[in-house]
Amino acid sequence: MTLRLNAELRTTTVPRPGMPVPDLGRAGAPGPNGSPRLLIFASLFCADCLELLSHLAPVAAAIPEYRLLLLAAGDPKEVREMSEYFGWTFETFPVNVREMHEGMGVRVYPYAIFDIGDGKIARAGTVHNEHEILALAAGLLMKGGETHGLHMPDGIHA
């Protein structure tokens, strides 16, 4: 049996550094506003994503200069219940799978995107636990000291 992929439905690239942050408006999530953000894309139908969920509150506490937003593919009621169960203080946004794939271009889960506030992806990659997310964050170089919370992606600093 041969598996054929419909080329019209495929995204040729995954979100990566330098690209614009995916449009989150259809999910009701806020767009870039000049503040650093950590966007986590997950699915309630993904075992790796479900394992990641318990790591998100410690991540939010470890890097408070980033506003964490979770975009979760799944039933809105289940996303809300999950947020209540874990006692998350960060925002969660239910998204349907088609919108996640076609509208946002995210087809790999769990996926993290760091946005330093300019609407472009500073760092991005698949993540499976707190350590992998913090390693992505560590790849951003501090500029202006921790008190300012300004991060610059590799290769952009002076």
Mean pLDDT: 82
Order of helices and strands: EHHEHEHEEHEE
**Individual helix count:** 5
CATH architecture of the domain at 41-139: 3-Layer(aba) Sandwich
- What helical percentage do the residues reach? 25-40%
Number of strands: 7
Look at the structure and name the CATH superfamily of the domain at 41-139: Glutaredoxin
Strands side by side in the biggest sheet: 3-2-1-4-5
CATH topology descriptor of the domain at 41-139: Glutaredoxin
What percent of residues are in strands?
Answer: 15-25%
Secondary-structure content class: alpha/beta
The radius of gyration over CA amounts to 16 Å
CATH level 1 class label of the domain at 41-139: Alpha Beta
Q: Which residues form runs of ≥5 with pLDDT under 50?
A: 1-7, 143-151, 153-158
Work out the oligomeric state of the chains in this entry.
single chain
Overall outline: globular
Please give the alpha-carbon distance between the first and last residues. Answer: 54 Å
Biggest beta-sheet profile: 5 strands, mixed
